[in-house]
Amino acid sequence: MFLFQKKVDPFVSTIHLPHSFKSDINKIVFFTENPDQARIAMENGAAVAGGAELVEKILADEITADFYLAEPDMVQKLLPLKNKLRKKFPKSKRGSVGMNIPKMLALFKSGHEYMVEDIYVNTQVATLDMPNEYILANIHAIVKDVASHKPAEFGSFIERAIVCSRSSEGLHIKIEELLPQEEEKA
After folding, report:
1. CA 119, CA 159: separation in Å to the nearest integer?
2. Along the chain (186 residues), what's the average pLDDT of each consecutive run of 10 residues?
3. What is the pTM of this model?
4. Rounded CA gap, 1 and 132, in Å?
5. Residue 2: left if φ>0, alpha if ψ -120 to 50, beta else—which one?
6. Does the keyword Ribosomal protein belong to this entry (predicted)?
7. Closest-CA residue to 50 (of 78, 24, 25, 79)
8. Is 2.40.290.10 the CATH number for 28-110?
9. For the chain, first and last CA: distance in Å?
10. Residue 5: predicted pLDDT
11. Per-residue pLDDT at 185
12. Domain boundaries defined on the chain
């Protein structure tokens, strides 16, 4: 997708695609000092749950994960990990800091992460063996989520979209049909 001449601050988002194409489940580390919350995290699929004692293990590369989630009161204790984890560092803006542990883990265990940099979204949306309806539904979900990050001062946000596989040329798609409709002002 191409965000025409209107640069946005880079962001990362994780969403549930209507038709997942990944069979593996993401490995998640959940940070909490509360043993009950750690138990809930483990029951809901976290690979590792613990407190500040995990910081040294992560810095020593003894523990690695696809996503790192945390309770709000743990973020300050995780600051030594900021340079190590970089974009994986837990942030409330990204949805990786919160108190609703089952909901957070459900999203990050099987969610699809995409990144917007400058004027492009470059992400996988499907596999070539998927039915066209599934591919279109996944594209629609990503377009809808990207549009939800639109700054208030922007008019039209997504100008065009191009889909391609690694071995083929890009195909333009009619993005207007996929965009959320803005209500007209009277």
Report:
1. 10
2. 63 91 91 96 96 95 95 95 93 92 94 86 90 93 88 74 84 81 52
3. 0.80
4. 18
5. beta
6. yes
7. 78
8. no
9. 31
10. 56
11. 45
12. 11-19+112-177, 28-110
| Alpha carbon of residue 123 to chain centroid | 11
Closest CA to 101 of 33, 49, 44, 48: 44
Runs of H (alpha helix) within 11-115: 35-43, 53-59, 82-85, 101-110
User: What radius of gyration, in Å, describes the C-alpha atoms of the chain?
Assistant: 19
Q: Name residue 174's amino acid.
A: K
Give the residue carrying structure tokens 């509360």: 34
- Measure the CA–CA gap between 144 and 81, rounded to whole angstroms: 32
Tell me how far apart the alpha carbons of residues 87 and 164 are, in angstroms, rounded to a whole number.
26
pLDDT at 134: 95
Measuring CA to CA, which residue among 50, 87, 53, 82 is closest to residue 67? Answer: 87
